[in-house]
Write a structure and sequence with these properties.
single chain, mainly alpha, four-stranded mixed sheet, 4 strands
Length: about 375
């Protein structure tokens, strides 16, 4: 009986172990806020003063937006059929990315607080009274004897092998390099590059009707389609092309020849907008959901007055937050969030002195803000 009892217990323990191993050991919770924001709140903002209250309020709202976007992405992953291992990998990627954005937002706030603290004039310590002491001569160290130079070794000239000439690059390989350059910057989007009959090379993404988000460096010798609301696939966004190459998220990158970094990048061109600064200032005046600093800096850029680096840094963080929220909903598009992101991108570029980029993003805002009748919708 004792032997039988030990065997039964051993079998029950074996079955329990097998069942435990068959159940996933960890499931990402629906709310990842503790993992994204845990331990990031600056201690200097625990006791808010009238001077730091606006900064703390901006930081709190931006951090909550980052966490909400990550939770939205996790809910989509939870409802999408996929293997558990793939789902866990994507969930970890979402949380890690959100955590990185939150850390960047807190670091920007700390830099802003530091810049405010060091505005006071630094006082240099005073020197003591001057004394006319004689200068003491340092003892001269003995110089070691120089070594005799060795006789140079003469090498017999041998037969040099002819250098291997690189094979000419095909149009498909060139387009593939360009698509890889774009995909490495934002691998979560779909990209395409095509060679048109007139010889121009166009690159597109299907984010928000073909708008290229800020922070993307275009490959040299490329251009993007003019701002216009388009529907359809990447091929439809490219238009008529002789050769085209596309990238889907998850596709491997090719190990082809790297693009020469010395070449000028492609330009995000759009029809020039008259009175860009004034129109941008008016569009950001009462825009719902847009940080108030956006209108303040847009008005300063339109008037040509200076902007301190700390304010531009805060504006860039707001842009990064809106960009992250927009990409987290991809391939879906939130119209209100898209319009705010376009205004943030245009204002940031104009304040930084990049008028071409500001013109490009604001032209997209005008197109995306049009009503179905073709007129621009009210921006308030």
């Amino acid at each position: 009986m004792a032997v039988f009892g030990r065997r039964s217990a051993r079998q029950r323990l074996k079955r329990a172990t097998e069942q435990a191993l068959s159940v996933p050991t960890f499931r990402m919770p629906d709310d990842c806020t503790p993992w994204v924001l845990g331990g990031l709140w600056p201690a200097v903002l625990d006791n808010v003063t009238p001077e730091t209250a606006p900064i703390a309020d901006y930081l709190k709202r931006d951090l909550q937006r980052i966490a909400d976007s990550a939770n939205h992405k996790l809910r989509i992953l939870h409802e999408t059929p996929m293997p558990d291992a793939v789902r866990a990998t994507e969930q970890n990627r979402v949380v890690d990315s959100a955590r990185a954005f939150a850390v960047q937002r807190v670091e920007s706030t700390m830099r802003q607080l530091h810049n405010q603290a060091v505005e006071a004039t630094q006082v240099l310590p005073s020197l003591g009274p001057h004394t006319d002491e004689p200068t003491r001569a340092m003892p001269r160290l003995p110089t070691p004897p120089a070594e005799e130079p060795a006789e140079p070794t003469v090498q017999e000239p041998g037969e040099q092998e002819p250098a291997e000439q690189a094979q000419p690059e095909t149009p498909e390989q060139r387009l593939r390099r360009m698509v890889d350059m774009l995909a490495r910057q934002e691998p979560g989007l779909r990209w395409a590059a095509g060679l048109r009959p007139d010889g121009t090379t166009v690159v597109v993404t299907d984010l928000a009707y073909g708008w290229v988000p800020p922070g993307i460096v275009l490959p040299p010798g490329t251009e993007v389609p003019a701002p216009e609301k388009r529907a359809g696939s990447l091929r439809a966004l490219l238009g008529v092309t002789e050769t085209a190459v596309r990238y889907n998220p998850g596709d491997p990158f090719t190990g082809g020849r790297a693009i020469d970094s010395g070449e000028a990048p492609g330009a995000m061109s759009a029809p020039e907008i008259d009175d860009l600064g004034w129109l941008l200032s008016e569009a950001t005046r009462w825009r719902e959901g847009l940080p108030r600093i956006t209108h303040t800096l847009a008005r300063a850029a339109a008037a040509g007055t200076g902007v301190v680096d700390a304010e531009l840094d805060v504006l860039r963080v707001h842009l990064d937050t809106a960009r992250y929220q927009l990409l987290s909903r991809y391939p879906a598009t939130d119209s209100a969030l898209l319009l705010n992101c376009l205004l943030l991108a245009a204002t940031t570029a104009l304040v930084a002195g990049d008028r071409d980029a500001a013109n490009y993003h604001f032209a997209w805002f005008i197109e995306c803000n049009r009503s179905p009748s073709g007129n621009a919708a009210h921006t308030s």
